[in-house]
Amino acid sequence: MSGFDTRWLDLREVADHAARDRGLRQRVTDHVMAVGEDATVVDLGAGTGSTLRALLPEAQHWRWKLVDNDANLLAEAGSRHGLSGRVECVEAHLDDISVDTFDGSRLVTASALFDLVSEDFLAGLVAQLVQADVSLYAALNYDGICHWDDPHPMDEEVVAAFNTHQQSDKGFGPALGPAATPSLRKLLEGQSFHVAMAPSPWRLDPSHAELQRQFVSGMATAAAETGLVSKMDVNDWQSARLERAENSSCFVGHWDLFAFR
Ligand SMILES: C[S@@+](CC[C@H](N)C(=O)[O-])C[C@H]1O[C@@H](n2cnc3c(N)ncnc32)[C@H](O)[C@@H]1O
């Protein structure tokens, strides 16, 4: 178990797919298709396979290696893709993967992953990408910006506390949180990659009420854990936000990034 359950990943997948930057996605699929239909793509922190689904229909022609340390999520990914013989599920901790994982692949992908990792992890990964001569598509990393159309007096404080929590250890050392994509860009450019970035925010409306509720509850728990806001203030904020979820709209900023040499 990684702490990411299928229900949460399913809930966010709709918003994630709508949020991905279309132009960048097209550049990524063109880049993979340029080497023919049997290109290999490695998806890190694959979960239930959301990235593969986001890159359909083109992705059905590629060979996929889905890497995750959560056996349950990988089993779910394996049962969902319907691409017989083209998908290998690899159960591994990302700290333990070697450059061989990327051997012969055209692209490495990761979505909603790099805001969980440390700068050291990214530096190691970029070194492996250079060694394997492979490109990178990193989608949907949180950028620290979150606001609602119907402001609440505690929004700013809660979001600031949440952003601090985003930098705590998520299994890879101190996490980059909102700094992930700018840091990744710097590391990649330092190794002569061409890097393109585009915003990919969630724009949640009342049709995403359940996602809004789960997101608000997760944010409240994380914010309270920092001790930067009082438990009582966070509880009041959470109750108000949960009540409004059917009527409010919420913006959650992310970055997509594509890097190639
Ligand atoms: C936020 S989820 C994103 C899942 C998927 N990429 C998506 O967009 O739906 C993060 C994923 O990273 C995986 N993960 C977290 N830490 C990991 C680690 N140390 N090694 C391998 N996978 C890890 C989790 O199991 C989870 O599937």
Automatic annotation (TrEMBL):
GO terms for biological process: methylation. It comes from the Bacteria. Keywords: Methyltransferase, Transferase. GO terms for molecular function: methyltransferase activity. InterPro entries: SAM-dependent_MTases_sf (IPR029063). This is Class I SAM-dependent methyltransferase.
